Structure formats: structure tokens, C-alpha cells
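Proteins fold reproducibly. Look at a concrete instance:
___
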Amino acid sequence: MTKVERRDLDGILLLDKPAGMSSNAAVQAVKRLLRARKAGHTGSLDPLATGLLPICLGQATKLSAYLLDTDKRYRARARLGASTTTGDAEGEVSETSDPAAIRRDRLESAIPDLLGAIDQVPPMYSALKRDGQPLYRLARTGQTVARAPRTVLIHELRLLEFDAERGEFEFEVRCSKGTYVRTLAEDWAAAVGQRAHLVALRRIGLGSFTAQALVTLEQLSLAAKAGEAEHFLLPAAAALSGWPRVQVDAPAARRLAQGQTVAVDGVEAGRGVAIFDRQERLLGIAQVTADGCLQPRRWLAPASAA
């Protein structure tokens, strides 16, 4: 078997993850097609889910944690009348209800109580761990363990469509990290005396990234064969769109790369800032200290590059 020669690639690919594929499998597929040495995703999507999965390559993987902390936007479809063991269409029916009397206005009337800071009990079929074991593995053996509620933020929630004949409703939500849309659908249904589960879920936003320019694996494969796949890569700086920017000269860049602080004016203390050199290259991330200095937090470029 011929060994594939891996290469150093830096950037971010906005993948349109297909249904039925795990996020890790999607990363490996992208890594293989690009022959990239290093890659990672910025928050997994369930195999059922589709849509925006930013994949960081090379130096951009150092920014993954910051993308994990950003808000997400989803479009989902839920079916009333039954809850399932997994919270989606892949699970077995666990409880049922009769949605015949439910109308659109009743669903909409429950929205205000679901906005803002709410507590969610994470589903058993999740990647959260108990004693080192993912909950989904315990769930597959029939085990159920107590899970502490977690506070999440629901910034926006809109009912897009209600199909009374099918007993389904479609909605869009913008939420904080750690939000389970499956649980949100279940809680929404419970607020109107119903059971429900997701039948479709698509992520359409993550931080400043949207679903307007996603790349499918098929598109990436064709481009790779033509030697044009790198054209789909965004610069690592795209992950920090909207962050305050500070441009530094070469001596300051060297000090920051070595972990030293550098004085800065005009930036609020406590803020995270993106550091660029005079050539507009992203060097890293720093935080502004109380005494007005840049404290490096994550550095992308080696000291020699500064």
C-alpha cells in the first residue's frame, strides 16, 4: 500500500456534514482528501444532524477552543406524539401523547418561557462522561444515571412552520454552547402537554460563520482531484471575525511569542484580542490585563515568523 504523504495546511473549511456521518469521521474524510497533517472540528454534530461543521487545519486548530465557546444556530423539525430513548428518530419510542388538539398558537405561547437562561438535563445519549464513560455507552447497555441540570442560554427561538396533519413543527434557535436541541424540543412539547422527538436537525450558524458557503464532501473530492481543494480554505483569522484587532511591530511580536506582555492603548481590560503583524498576518490571541498590557493566550506563529 502506498503511503500518503501528508502536508502542512493552515485554514478553516466550512463543511456541510452529511446525515449519518459522525463528526470525527467527517474530519478524517477531509483530512484524507486534503492530505492534511493535522485537523480537528469545533464542536461535534450528532450523526443525524447535517450542516455547518467548521474543520480547522494546521495552525487553525489552536483556535478550536474559542469556536467551541461561540453561539450556535440550528434549524430543526420535531414530531409530536412520541418521545424516544435518544430524543431523535433513531431511538425507540418511550412515551406517547395525542397531538390532535395542538395548534400553532399554543406552541408559540410557550416560547417566552424557553428564552434566556434555562436549565436542561443532558440526554443519556450524549458524549458527556460519567466515571470516564460516555453516557451514550451506558445508555446502550440499558443504564440510566442521574444527570445534573445545566444552565444554557436560548437567545432566539422562532416557530417557522406547524404541520397539524403530520403533527410536526419546524423551528430555528440561536443558543449558547452546551445546548441540546433534542432536549429543547422535548421541553417545548412538554410545556404544551406533549411528547416529541427530533426528525431533522441542521446547524446553520456558528459564531460568525453561516451556512451560505458550505462545502460538501463531494465538492471537496472533485476539487482535490483537480488540485484545487485549497481554494475552499478560509484563513485562520476568519474564526476571530468581530474580535478587537491589535497590530504590533516585529519587536512586540517577538516578546508576545515568548510569553511576555506588551503595553497597549485603547482596548478594554479583560477583552480577548486578535494580534496581527504589520503584514496583516494573524499571530495569535491575547487578553488585555487590568494594567493595560497584552498577555498572550494562544500563539499561532512561531517566534521566528514574527
Remarks:
- DSSP finds seven helices and 18 strands in the chain.
- The chain has a mean pLDDT of 91.
- The first helix runs from residue 23 to 34.
